[in-house]
Amino acid sequence: MSAIIDFQKKYGLTPDGAIGANTLKKIKELLNIQSNEALAHFMGQCSHESWDFTTTSENLNYSANALLRTFKKYFTPESAKKYEKNPVKIANHVYANRMGNGNEESGDGYKHRGFGFIQLTGKNNQDAFAKSINKPEIKDNPSLIASVYPFESAKFFFDTNNIWKYTNEVNDDSILKVSKIINLGNVNSKSTPIGIDERIKKTKYYYNLIEKSKI
User: Fold this and answer.
1) Alpha-carbon distance 73 to 70, whole Å?
2) Cα separation of 70 and 59, whole Å?
3) Helix (H, G, I), strand (E, B) or coil at 57
4) pLDDT, mean over the chain
5) Are 17 and 6 in contact (CB under 8 A)?
6) Does the predicted TM-score (pTM) go above 0.90?
């Protein structure tokens, strides 16, 4: 919860790591989130994606078997063994030559790996976020997204993917649609988002908390 504590310290809240009424109110105000329903979707998805707000950087410490499950497009059983348990090499390989990154030797893949509560990945996406909040220093140091702007970058993800239009209600159908965009990249996908049960549970938890807190 260090990212939550840092947020609370920054805005003069009790730095206890607990996400209660005052913290939720400040998040809603800071990010200009328009409704309690939208805030619940935002918090539920951020919570799921960041392991309950405990991580703001992409963990790429994969075994060979995990690489074949997660990045099967980029590895064979033989090559996976050469990359396993080496996050730098893995990122530079799977994120090379796309999303604005250079080739594997450039190191862009690791430099521009996923950061934030909803991981913003790739040079193009991170540069666009830097421009949107007028913080050009992020272009040279994208890890600032993890340490300083985890909430703001997640809001940017919701904005640029037009997710808010699915957040007017909090029910299984709306949560499924939001989850498909975040996890599968397509609201019309026929696949089931990874962790859908937890995403539903967390979104409804935050909605109940927000409503009880009368934010």
Assistant:
1) 9
2) 12
3) strand
4) 97
5) no
6) yes
